[in-house]
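Teaching assistant here, posting this on the class forum so everyone can see the example we discussed in section. The complex has two components, and the goal was to see what a joint structure prediction looks like when all of them are supplied at once.
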Amino acid sequence: MQEDAKWFRETFESVRQEVARAVVGQADIVEGVLAGLAANGHVLLEGMPGLGKTLLVRTLSEALELGFSRIQFTPDMMPADVTGTQVLGENRAFEYRPGPIFANIVLADEINRATPKTQSAMLEAMQERAVTAGGKRHQLPEPFLVMATQNPVEQEGTYPLPEAQLDRFFVKLIVPYPTKAELSEIVLRTTSREEVAPSRVAGQGDVLRMRQIVRSVVVDPEVLGFALSLVVATHPEGEGASSVSKRYARYGASPRGAQSIVTLAKVFALLSERQNASKGDVLRALKPTLRHRILLNFEAEADGITPDAFLDSVAEQVGKADLDPVRI
Amino acid sequence: MVRAWKSAAIGATLGAAGAAACATAGWLGYADPEPIQLVVGIAGSALLGAVIGAVRPVKDAALRASVDRRAGLENRLTASAVDVDFVEEIRADAESKLANVKPSAIYPVRLGRWHAGAVAATMLAASIFLIGSTPILLSPQEKAARAELAKKGKVLERITKEAFQDAEAEKKLSPAERRLLEDARRLQRDLERNRIRPEEALQKANELQRKAVELAKQGAQESQKYLEQAETAMEKMERAELEKAGLSQVSPEMLQMPQAERKQMQAKAEQKLKEIQQQLADIQKRLDEIKKKLEQKGLSAEERKKLEEEQKALEAQKKRLEEEAKAAKELADALKLSEKAKSVLEKMRNHAVMEEIRALAKQMAKESQQSAKTGQPKLTKEQLEELRRRMEELLAKLEDDAAMEEYLKQLLEAMKKAGDCQGQCMRPGGLGAKLAALLGIRGGPSSDEDDNFMDSGHVNMLDKAVEGKGKTFTTSVSGTRRESGEETFIEIKAPTMLGNRTSVPYKSVLPSYNRKAEEALNRKEIPKEHEKRVREYFKSLTK
């Protein structure tokens, strides 16, 4: 297992470095996307347009030699435009023509511009990892990762994803605006004659092996209890509810959130070449995995409480209650 | 060790908090803690805490989690307890990380919040104790008054130490005497620490003196009772001696008669015996005659009846005389034997041991009578101890004689009862008397200068001025009391200044004081009852 952990970290690092050759900065986002890929979870990105999301996904697919497709969602897009459609073939028989979702890495750009009907089709496919058309089920390729983006600025003519749909994403990453130095690097790199062509550093099999290794990481009862305390503390009701959630939360994180936080903690443990997840890993995984799974109330909105601030408060309270069992 | 260190600090903090509470109670007069008691309390709590911290068990899981947390092992130790295939690898990983960790680094012996708390609480307790025991915050007048009280406290301490020089003596005290001693010591400490007002000290001293005299009298009465029992036992012993010599008919009273009187009495008894014997012979002769006449025939019924009645009367007289003769004979015999009996008893009484016993008994009886009258016998502690020792020796010598033993036991008991006070409650320099003298009880002796606490305890009606020894200070309370209001007061007809004598002639100031009081009564709004009380007070002074 120690060897596996070492291999995981090295592979992960090599992919990250390869992506970093093309994508300037955004280290946390790259790490989050890779973690989602390794943990078999989908990623929701929220950020301004033009921050390199497409470049990131394309580079990633090239580095891993995986199939890539990009879907730009628009209000007039139909489910079949995503999942595929039946067409009359040369032999006068209907043939299924797979949609853009049939790729290893799918960039679902501005998913909130699609109608709920199209969104549902997309999200169902994400969940089932298969598409049913003409009474026939078509399995999506493995590995399969959807990286959806939301534009937080333009709200007119959009259909924000409902909470139940958001819960299907493994993590939600906030793409920050690049720093001045990063911006300078981006400008120089994209306006020069020199183009960066990512090379393959890992393959489909490596991704699948990474997923197996992630599942092997040990989560001891102490750490598991801590993670569950965090999840429970996001709920406004119940025994473990924190005071901040009682005040600001409308709904807490779902059980899928608990699964996600533990899984991401495992990935982080492997990145430290550890065979066990720690409380530190859980805390690190807290915001990416839960920020889109909690629903704050009006008071939180009025007080300017963001999900991240809310989760920081929850972590602080749970951390205070998590005392050293040997009091000296 | 680290847990013991912290638990000791917790214990010390709690102990110091308790000590602070005790010191506060002491300051307010509800308790009387000694510094050593406070120190022992804090140290004991710390030690107890250390022991609890050292022996309290720690669960393995808790220890793993704690080490993980403190050493930054990122849950490697807790994960090493999970049952998985590669658990050995996890353990090896944990051990490799743990190898670089020093126990002293993750569980450092350092001063924490509890230690700071212990120090703070100890300082607080010490501060409260010192402030309560020292006159730092007092005005010069109050300091002077306290110094005076403390001086009296020292005197009282010396008296109690004189009375009880060793712990052995204290052990022999009765519960009542022990309470008295405790009260005296408490008063002494209150005086030394200035936790008592002079008026209150006077009241307490009065009470102590009353109890001391009462105890002394009780002791004397018990001693008297035992001596009386001893006298009875002595009589029994003498009778026993006479019986042993076959002289049981000789009464001790006879032996106490002068010889001439006894001889005269013996002669009288013998003379009376002769007379009775003569009378008996005459009666017998007459009875024989009557018997013969009654046997003759030809007597009339009337004559026979007359003779029979005479015979009956003579028989009765004969019987009475025979009894008298017997008594007279016994008396005469006894008187005859009394010389012998006397020599027997004198031999016993002149025995060296008995002479000593009698001397001791005489001394004890005298002391007992004296103490019953005044409560202050003159036997010293050393004398009582010597008497007791001698009595025990005598008991050992004469233990084979049951009566003697009883006598000695009774006497010894009486001596013990008298001696158990060790003189402190009976002798003139004893605790009760000293207390009375020290605190100015009326009638109490005041032989040395320490004994002047508040003059004589009554109004000094001297016509001549006497120079005062201290300074006067008064406290006035402003306000108006309504008719329905309540008040408590202590009327002390004595100078209310500590250690002062009146410094002006009493008669010269009384009229002016009386006038001022009347003016004040007319001018101020004073309750009627209070007015009455003031007028009665001045009236009593002019009597």
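For the discussion questions: Chain A is about 50% helix and 15% strand. The interface with chain B takes residues 1-2, 216, 218-223, 269, 272, 274-281, 324-328 of chain A (CB under 8 Å). Think about how each of these relates to the inputs above.
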